[in-house]
Amino acid sequence: MINLKIRKNGLCISGFADTKIFVILVVVIVLLAGVLWKIGTIGAAARNIKRNYDITNLQKALRLYNNGEGKFPVSNGAMCLDGSDSIIRKLVDKKYLLHPVKDPKNSSIVPENWPPSDGQSCYYYESDGNKYFIGYCMEGLLKKSAKCKYVRK
């Protein structure tokens, strides 16, 4: 049991020195910081898993579309697939894709260059009907460790 005593210069907790309480607080804060950091990395890992799943499904849908229609869906230049764009709607409407796909941290702004340098996050798509390009970025623990990938067909 901890006994509280009031002294002239402040509150005293007998049985614990001020430094022991400080050390305990520091340990608790460090543990909390570690837990919060781990939660953040788990979220990034989950979003990366979803990206891989989405891109695999998108490639399959594009292959099926090409087999059925004789060409890949044509884009008017580079575009971000945000789940409601014309390419995804076409794939879903014609039943080549079951559900719309979009990057979990979707940014509908098309990056000027690939790979994007300013942290934009979208599934980048470009096609002339004969071939296609899909670009996407995986999250890293640090911004510099993020890896951008692409698929060409």
What's the SSE blueprint?
Layout (H helix, E strand, L loop, with lengths): L2 E5 L2 E5 L3 H52 L9 E3 L4 H8 L29 E5 L4 E7 L8 E6 L1
Antiparallel strand pairs: 1-2, 3-4, 4-5, 5-6
What does the model show?
The chain is of the alpha+beta class and 153 residues long. The chain has 2 helices and 6 strands; from the N terminus they run E-E-H-E-H-E-E-E. It has a 4-stranded antiparallel sheet with strand order 3-4-5-6, covered by helices on one side. A two-stranded antiparallel ribbon has the order 1-2. The longest helix is centred in the N-terminal third of the chain and has 52 residues. The termini are far apart. The mean pLDDT is 81.
Q: Secondary-structure element sequence?
A: EEHEHEEE
Residue stretches low in confidence (pLDDT < 50, at least 5 long) are: none
Average per-residue pLDDT, rounded, comes to: 81
Numbering strands along the chain, what is their spatial order in the largest sheet? Answer: 3-4-5-6
Based on Cα principal axes, name the global outline: elongated
Largest sheet data: 4 strands, antiparallel
Calculate the terminal CA-CA distance, rounded to whole Å.
72 Å
Report the total helices.
Answer: 2
What structural class is derived from the secondary structure elements? alpha+beta
> Oligomerization state of this entry?
single chain
